[in-house]
What we know:
By secondary structure, this protein is an alpha+beta fold.
Amino acid sequence: MNYVTYKNPEIGIEIKYPFGWHVQDQDLPVKELMLIISEEDLTCKTESSNFIRNINIGAEILDLVNDPAYSSFKGRPRELLDEHAIHKIQTLQKNIENFSISSKEEAVVSYFPAIKIKYKGKMLDFLLAWIQYFTIIQGDLACTITATCLQARYNKEFDELVDEIVGSLVITP
């Protein structure tokens, strides 16, 4: 497969993605970063009946001072990562019908420790499968990478494609 490199030194990110896919920077007030890499041209607001596959990279600052969910983890990055993943998984359970995790494992994203989960469920009338990575960068920057695919198209090739794309990610805080 041929890859193209997306670089944005302003936000400190570089990633390779398949030739022919699209990259869209999203300007969202609630996130530090939102980048979508997909087979079709779509945005965060798209409700596509011909949904194929995409990878979202999002980052947000965690409030380690005022948020009671995170304040006790300041200076303890591994514990903060574990707690952040727990909170994110609980949110997924609330928002995805028939949510089920098929695997959870330790991973690395751009040299940072990460947690990788695979799960499936129903959202917006689609039966979907996801691969998601959670990592913490520079103490309070939480990065979430989410790969989404129709369950009917989910296979080993999709796993390998996601691993290649995530493996190429370089984050320079």
